[in-house]
């Protein structure tokens, strides 16, 4: 059963990089990280938007561009290969924690402002394992 870490974080303008040591560890850039795959979060029970992202042996998230609206968003990371991954949304300091082969775990945030929110695999950010949530 996937574990859910609840974080009621608010994306207030200007709250970026509030604390040293927990800033952006990577920024999504398709020009260096290969072609993007886009997925749209679906609104389910309780108005929570959900989407599943896979992490694979190529050190890529699929999709790596998530379209969502403001409100609650739950991203489930599923690791498909041998290599464990995590999914961390930098701005919210929110993470799935390490997800082993064949397992999945979720991270849930509440996004109050439209914008672009980067996420990374903290283990493979240097290999370009990054993505972005596009919130409208
Ligand atoms: Cu990874």
UniProtKB/TrEMBL annotation:
One of its GO terms (molecular function) is metal ion binding. Gene3D superfamilies: Cupredoxins - blue copper proteins (2.60.40.420). Residues 45-128 form the EfeO-type cupredoxin-like domain. Residues 1-20 form the signal peptide. It comes from Actinocatenispora rupis. The keyword Transmembrane does not apply. It comes from the Bacteria. The keyword Metal-binding applies. This is EfeO-type cupredoxin-like domain-containing protein. The lineage of its organism: Bacteria, Bacillati, Actinomycetota, Actinomycetes, Micromonosporales. CDD domains: Cupredoxin (cd00920).
